[in-house]
Each structure stands twice: as C-alpha cells, then as structure tokens.
Amino acid sequence: MQTYRLSLFVLIITVLTFSLDTNVYAQSSAKPFVIMIDPGHGGRDTGTPGTGRYKTTEKDIALDVALALGKVLQQKLANVKVVYTRNKDVFPTLNGRTTAANKKDVDLFISIHCNAQPGKNGTAYGSETYVLGTTKNKQNLEVAKRENSVIALEDNTEVYKDFNPNSTESVLGLMLAQEEYLDHSIKLARYIEDEFQVTAKRRSRGVKQNIFYVLAYTYMPSVLVELGFLTHKKEEDFLNSKRGKDLMTKSLFNAIEKYLKYLNFNTESDVLVEATQVEQPSNDIEFKIQIAASSKALETEPYNFKGLNKITRVKDGSLYKYYYGSTTNYEATKQLEEDARSKGYSSSFVVAFKNGKKIPLAEALKTIAN
Q1: How do the domains of the chain map onto residue ranges?
Q2: Fold held by 24-262
Q3: What confidence score (pLDDT) does residue 325 get?
C-alpha cells in the first residue's frame, strides 16, 4: 500500500509540476508558449452586422485583428507560437474551438469579438473583456446570449446538452474546473482593458464576468474581448478603419507581452526566468477540500453548504473560495472528499496550505514524502 501511495505521489507531482500555480513557470525551452487566437463567428455566422453601413460585419473585423495580432506576436516574441481557431472565413463550432484549444496544449486562449446594442440608435460604446463567471447584469446576460446563440446554427447541438448558463450551480461547477486559471485570466483581462485606454485611447467598460461557452470549456487562462460596439456609428467607423484595427492590435499585443512578463516567461531568448519567492522554512502542511468559488461572501454555515460544517472562506482576488474540513494527514483527505461529493459537490478537490498560504499540491506532497 505504501508503495502504491508513493507511486501516486510521483504521478501527481509529475502532472502538477506544470500547474500555473507553481513558483517556476515550468516550461522547457523546447516547448514554446502557445497562444490560440479565436476570431469570433465566421462563415454563415456573421456576428453583428452593426449599423448596416458597411459590407463588413463582426466576423470580418474579428478575423482582421486576430491575424494581425498573431503576426506581430510571432515577429516580436521569441518562444511564442500562435495557432488559430480559424484563419479565413469559415464556421468552426463553439465545441470545435474549445476542443482544438484543449487538444493543442494551448497556454492562453483569446477570443476576439465586437459588441452590439439592441435597437436602431445605439449609444453604448467602448471595449469590454470577459472572464468566466456569474452575472445578473441584464446587459451582460444579453451579450452572453448573443455570443452563445451560434449553437442554434450548428448541425449537432447534442454536445451542448450539459451547458446550462442559467444554472448558478452549473456555472459554479464550471468555475471550479477553471479554478487554476481564473486568476491569470483576470490578470490578462485587466492588462487588455488598461492598454485599450492608454494605447488606443478608447473608453474601457471594464473587466467583467460572464458565462460564454468558449471560456467555460477551454482549460487554460482564457478571455473574450469585445473590441467595441458596431452599433455605435463612430466606433463602427473606428473599428472598420486601418488605424482603428492597428491600435486595437497594438493594445492586445502590449497586454499579452505584459502578461508573459508577469509569468516570468522570457520572450527574448530560449531561457526561461525563474520566479523568486522567499518562504519561511516549515513543514506544517494543511489539506482542505475546495467545494466552491463565488463572487458572493456567503456565511460559512451548514445551511449554505448542504449541511456540511467546518467550512472556511478565503478571499482570493475577486472570488471567495470555500473549503471543507482540515487535516494535516493527506490520507484523511480521501474521506473528506467523499463527504463533499456525497453532498453533491462533484467537482470538489484537495487544496494544500503551508503556514496558512495556499501552495501547489505537488509541493505539499513532495514535503510530506520526504
């Protein structure tokens, strides 16, 4: 049994060595940082037509900016590889886009779109960048509904039967699956909106959370960018102009470059730089079961967690994360996880802490194995 447990430790450590939560961005020089750019819509799915004053629609602007961004990334950043969900006017399915990203071992997913406001005389304008999350904002829900509506154009809708953006519990489950990546998604989104303001001199409507299929099912840091409103005449003119596209492309490039520097990924040579982090020497490891993450601060009472007690809440970025139980014995986490799953938290998982600070599970397992 002990041999089995040690083998399990080694397997988990090997897998989690590549987690984004490790202190070193563990990626060998032989493997470039892969960025997938997803020009929204395409083919028979035109996206928003805007005011109708142009022959081009959302799908065309998204593709122009995506290809320009990919080109400048490849030209200016070493160790970066760019792939696309489409590089011409074709119609990839939403499921096809996410499947391609997951199969190609993509490190970053960026979906590019243009916004629209219902009605004849649109007054809304400005950029927005979305990460996965819940929202009750009516306008945000309309954006999600429009971007997800392409599902109706697809031949096989059966693959979307488990996608229920109207279920809070379903969305929280999806967010748990993305837990390792959400903080990085928010970081990139903030860089993007800052660059739109500074470099392109555009109005930023901010970083927002929403339930888009392409964000929910891409298992890496992912953002969906709305460049602006094609229903606003001046903004439509800007986004159809060469100058406008160039400025938005430059803004996106600058944001991605900042993000890679944040990761300590060296884009000037094939040497990766280690992130430095000073820790106090200690072997005090604590394990908990993460059962949920939410933008709401819930009382840690059993009635809020299907009867589970011993719940702790930790603010992490813009989210509150909820943990069940606590043990210094990794063997005991199995029973805790079974307890959580029996209450309906099917996406629960083990999280490790050292001196009260969350650390990669791989690091904790290495410590207790020594």
Answers
A1: 2-14+281-369, 24-262
A2: Aminopeptidase (3.40.630)
A3: 92
